[in-house]
Every structure is written in structure tokens, then in C-alpha cells.
Amino acid sequence: MKFRKTFTDIRQKYKELSLTGTLMRLGMLLILYPIGHYIPFWMSKAPILFSVMQILYEWVSVFIVNGSILMLKLFYPTILADANHVIYIHGTGIVFLSPPCTGLDPMIRMAFIFLFYPLKIKIKLWVLPLSILFILVAATIHFIMLITIVYEAKEWYRFSHEWLTKVIFYGFYFMVWVMWENILKNKKAINTKD
């Protein structure tokens, strides 16, 4: 009985619009983030889910590659991509969009974390796609930067890929969390049916 009351108290604090509630939700994000890393791994072990992930990788890859080409066409008129998502400028292969660079794993991880966020279901239905779009934009910015860096200053590729783009992804993750917090400030958005 005491455990149930304690759990209920913690859950109430988690939903509060106080500093304590905000810190608890941030803590939950930081705890679930590394756990969410295993979700795509587990999905890849189930044949049906693996097929779904392959289709999603292809859709996301096409979006990122075409978005990048559209943006970079202004600076590199000869830019194009082949069916394997290799970017060419002036006929020279520059960079390949590999599945980990699509941002699909962070999107899946973010959706997993979002399941535990205290919002009403009807609000989650539009906030989740918006959050995924944010991460998709981050992945596209990441790829645009890498194309430009590889073409203009190849010696900076490793640093850019290992450090700069991680800052971009974590920055976008944080912006998504801030967006969730701002939506949560509207008391009508809190899911009280738990």
C-alpha cells in the first residue's frame, strides 16, 4: 500500500508544471535516451519489423538526399545523387548517406521517450510527427554540412562528423524537449487519466 502511494506521488510530481516536475521529465529523457538506443536493434531482430525499418530508412534517405540536393543546387549546379544515395558534384562521388546518418534511429528513440511524456493522446498525435520532422530537419542539415565539408575541406570531415554534427543532433533533441515542455505548460494538455 505504501509503495503504491509513493508511486502515485512520484507520478503526480512528474506531471507538475513546477521546477521539480521539469527536472523529473528531463531526468526521464536522460535515462530513456540510452535505453532507446536498443529499440532499433531489437526491431532489426524481428523479420517484419526489420522490413518496416528498411522501408523507413529508404523513405528518410530519399527525403534527406533530395532535400540536400535542392538546397545545395544553388552552390553546386552539377550536384546529383544515384539510387544508392551517393552524392556527386562535377561527376565525383563525394559522400554516401548511410543508414545511421539518416536520423531514423534518433527518431525511433525520440518516439520511445515520448511515450512516457505526460500529454493527452490527442495532443501526442500531432506533437510526435512534428518532433520527428524536427529530427528529420536536423539529419538534413547534418548531411548538407557533410557534403559541403567533404567537397570544400575534406580534412575537416572526421571532426565535423564526430563532433559538430553531434552538437546539431543533441541541440535539436533539446529543442524538441523544450517544445514538449512548452506544450505541457497548457494545463489542458496534461494527461490526467493515468
Structure report:
By secondary structure, this protein is mostly helical. It has one domain. Helices cover 71% and strands 6% of the residues. It contains 7 helices and 3 strands. The protein has a 3-stranded antiparallel β-sheet, with helices on one face. A hairpin with a 2-residue loop joins β2 and β3. It is elongated and about 70 Å long.
Structural class: mainly alpha
Fraction in beta strands: 5-15%
Number of domains: 1
Q: Give the helices and strands as they follow along the chain.
A: HHHHEEEHHH
What is the residue-mean pLDDT, rounded to a whole number?
84
In terms of quaternary structure, what is this?
single chain
Q: Please state how the strands of the largest beta sheet are arranged side by side.
A: 1-2-3
